[in-house]
């Protein structure tokens, strides 16, 4: 058995972000990921939008402001893991014009400077944009390459002393309910580690992981499909300006566009249906914005799982914070902390919130430094790709950009 201060379960963006933040504060951390490489879950299966916050500006202004802040930070510290494609919101004839105005106002409210554009200007920026587009505006969306981001974050954590194990599925967490006891975490054939604090960053599997410690976490995973097609000159991220619905976003990824998505609740994150109608609907809906898509063959599809969490469970489960993400300190398993929800774009901020909580528990009085310290390899795509390969972190979201 090895000993550490903190075990982090899950090697997606959130888990490596927590490991990095804690390591930079001088905390001894061991990360356990069940996959053969990092980035094996949702992080490697998103659209890869570096959100500006515009998508959520009217429905969740606080979450949107977090996105805007983190979008700016990642451009500073993670060049090469993110790309500045820009983004547009477009309204088609028949879409609600009041919603468009509310969205534009809400973007301004959170401190963004959206740029209204005429239909002709919009069509100049986006190849193949529909004649049905009546108005739109530009926002600072970008593209994030999760393979590089996760690998560079893990590399930085390792530089500061974190230990990272892949092929280490956690199968047992011994939390005996005594607040002053350490927790023992057992993996299949991998290491057994004892720690003062265990952070559950297992994304859609977080409910399963919490149950290993006898704690409850009501996660309802929902699946969404992403459809990649050849579309070399899309330009910016193109969002449809209407209430969230299936097939309302197209994201430029190298020579391809990634179209998304759907939202269907699943019972088991390890076994769920993948239906053709999701692919068809996503393509059809996106083709309303970008008509050439109707005749473009589908190159590849992949599904991701959102870990939906009901914030009112916080009062039932323990204490913590809840916003677009939740940090839950489980009363039934002292020392176990779960982090759920959020976005790839806000992974650093989520990690900071978790690390603040953990440092409070451990009595560590070091500030967070992750917003200032650049990630290793930034500005050097070849080095970032090497790191992605070294950590086995190349996932479907950017397989077309990050070399195998
Ligand atoms: C369809 C879809 C599209 C999205 N698009 C975007 C987007 O464009 N932009 C954006 O910012 N966000 C997007 N998101 C959200 C974003 O992808 C997620 O919020 C984020 O990636 C979650 O990261 P995570 O590390 O919390 O979870 P994950 O990446 O799922 O990581 C959890 C890890 O835990 C591991 N694990 C599970 N069980 C165990 C165990 N027992 N032992 C050890 N390890 C275990 C898994 O293998 C996995 O690697 C999207 C999400 C979905 C579903």
TrEMBL record:
PROSITE patterns: FAD_G3PDH_1, FAD_G3PDH_2. GO terms for cellular component: glycerol-3-phosphate dehydrogenase (FAD) complex. It holds the Pfam family DAO. It catalyses: a quinone + sn-glycerol 3-phosphate = dihydroxyacetone phosphate + a quinol. SUPFAM superfamilies: FAD-linked reductases, C-terminal domain (SSF54373), FAD/NAD(P)-binding domain (SSF51905). Keywords: FAD, Flavoprotein, Oxidoreductase. GO terms for molecular function: glycerol-3-phosphate dehydrogenase (quinone) activity. Gene3D superfamilies: FAD/NAD(P)-binding domain (3.50.50.60). The keyword tRNA-binding does not apply. InterPro entries: FAD-dep_OxRdtase, FAD/NAD-bd_sf, G3P_DH_FAD-dep. This is Glycerol-3-phosphate dehydrogenase. The lineage of its organism: Archaea, Methanobacteriati, Methanobacteriota, Stenosarchaea group, Halobacteria.
């Amino acid at each position: 058995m090895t000993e550490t201060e903190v075990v982090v379960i899950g090697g997606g963006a959130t888990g490596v972000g927590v490991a990095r933040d804690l390591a930079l504060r001088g905390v001894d951390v061991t990360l356990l990921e069940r996959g053969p490489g990092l980035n094996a879950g949702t992080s490697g299966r998103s659209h890869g939008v570096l959100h500006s916050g515009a998508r959520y500006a009217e429905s969740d202004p606080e979450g949107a402001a977090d996105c805007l802040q983190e979008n700016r930070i990642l451009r500073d510290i993670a060049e090469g893991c993110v790309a500045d494609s820009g983004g547009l919101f477009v309204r088609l004839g028949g879409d609600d014009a009041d919603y468009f105005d509310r969205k534009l106002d809400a973007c301004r409210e959170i401190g963004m400077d959206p740029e209204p554009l005429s239909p002709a200007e919009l069509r100049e920026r986006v190849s193949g944009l529909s004649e049905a587009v009546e108005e739109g505006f530009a926002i600072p969306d970008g593209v994030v390459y999760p393979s590089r981001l996760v690998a560079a974050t893990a590399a930085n954590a390792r530089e500061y002393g974190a230990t990272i194990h892949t092929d280490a599925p956690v199968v047992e967490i011994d939390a005996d309910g005594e607040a002053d006891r350490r927790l023992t975490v057992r993996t299949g054939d991998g290491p057994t580690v004892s720690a003062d604090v265990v952070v559950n960053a297992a994304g859609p599997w977080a409910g399963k992981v919490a149950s290993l410690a006898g704690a409850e976490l009501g996660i309802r995973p929902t699946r969404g499909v992403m459809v990649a097609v050849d579309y070399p000159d899309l330009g910016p991220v193109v969002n449809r300006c209407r209430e969230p619905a299936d097939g309302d976003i197209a994201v430029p990824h190298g020579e391809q566009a990634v179209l998304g998505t759907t939202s269907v609740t699943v019972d088991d994150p390890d076994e769920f249906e993948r239906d053709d109608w999701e692919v068809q609907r996503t393509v059809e809906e996106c083709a309303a914005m970008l008509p050439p898509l109707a005749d473009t063959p589908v190159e590849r599809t992949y599904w991701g799982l959102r870990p939906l969490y009901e914030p009112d469970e916080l009062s039932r489960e323990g204490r913590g914070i809840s916003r677009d993400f939740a940090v839950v300190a489980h009363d039934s398993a002292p020392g176990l902390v779960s982090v759920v929800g959020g976005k790839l774009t806000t992974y650093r901020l989520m990690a900071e919130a978790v690390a603040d909580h953990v440092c409070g528990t451990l009595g560590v009085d070091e500030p967070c430094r992750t917003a200032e310290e650049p990630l290793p390899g930034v500005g050097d795509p070849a080095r970032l790709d090497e790191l992605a390969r070294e950590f086995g972190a190349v996932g479907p979201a950017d397989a077309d950009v990050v070399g195998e």
